[in-house]
Amino acid sequence: MTRLIAVCGYSDGRETGLHPICELRLRLAEREAGPNDVVLLTGWARHADATAEAELMARSWAGSSRELHVDNSARSTLGNVAAAVELAEALGATEVVLVTSGWHARRAGALLRALLEESGRTGRVLGTDERGSIAARARELVCWVGVPFAAPAARRRGQASSPSSPRR
Q: Which CATH number does the domain 3-157 belong to among 3.40.50, 3.30.160, 1.10.1740, 1.10.10?
């Protein structure tokens, strides 16, 4: 039985290293992951000369896992979730655990449930306990408008890009 732990990246575009919010997500995933789990780190680089969030997380990963995958192409919450579901299918994973921030968990969970629908896989979301800035929470409210349309469209198109091969 394979369990996939997927960590959503985060950047505000101003940091050159791992953003503190992203680091909180990574540390939560490290506490959750066990030696038989597969871990997926997702997130892109907002600037051409920047290092992708997923790569920064991989460099900082101190948890245990059977395999560590890095997906530098996920540019949104939907991209993060789609990459996780696609990898779960490829691995035959029975459970997907999505790790994100508490203020982001509700929307990410709705997308995860929608993309896992009819797959036979279970999914759950672990959220950090930071509240998030007013701007981040306001952005979440705005992004909710697209949720009913985004997940069905992603299922129809199968738009997820393939996560890279394992790191170890």
A: 3.40.50
